[in-house]
What does this fold into?
Amino acid sequence: MRIFTGFFTNNDTKSKINEHIDFLKEKAVSGNFTHFNNIHLTLIFLGEINDRQYKSLVRAVENVEFSPFEIQFDRIGKFEAWNNEKGDLYWIGADKSKELDFVYKSLRNEIMKENLTFDGKSYKPHITLGRQVFLKNPSEDICKKITPINFKIDKINIIKSERTPNGVKYVKLM
It folds into this structure.
């Protein structure tokens, strides 16, 4: 199963984020846009794991303790495709917070204790709005500051990525 850890949020927050997805859709010719129920903040991506590794991941998540906190997403940005035929990935971003950094490092350390492998890239907190996006006007810069969106972080979720005929579906396992 294809697994990552992260955070889901309430429908009110998802609605505010979805407004930016709609904005991106208006500006785009095409793209793979995040569905409302899939809106989340990834913490650590593990990829394909088996049942034994899943049990180890559960232990790692259960060993991370923290008090609930909020972060603010305040800008639209993009990761440019290395291949112009693939389109860009647009996101809303937040600055790292001390609390989020603590949770990330704590979980990373617990995952390493369990001898699990994971994506070791530096952590850049963001929520994906759309992948493989091609703008109607490619020279238009839609990356900008936005009205801050508060996102409450209170529990690390283990999330399974499932491919369906209607696209990817994220299922909260824990």
Q: What stands out?
A: The radius of gyration is 16 Å. Strands lie at 2-7, 28-33, 41-48, 69-79, 88-94, 126-135, 145-153, 157-164, 167-172. The chain has one domain: 2-172.
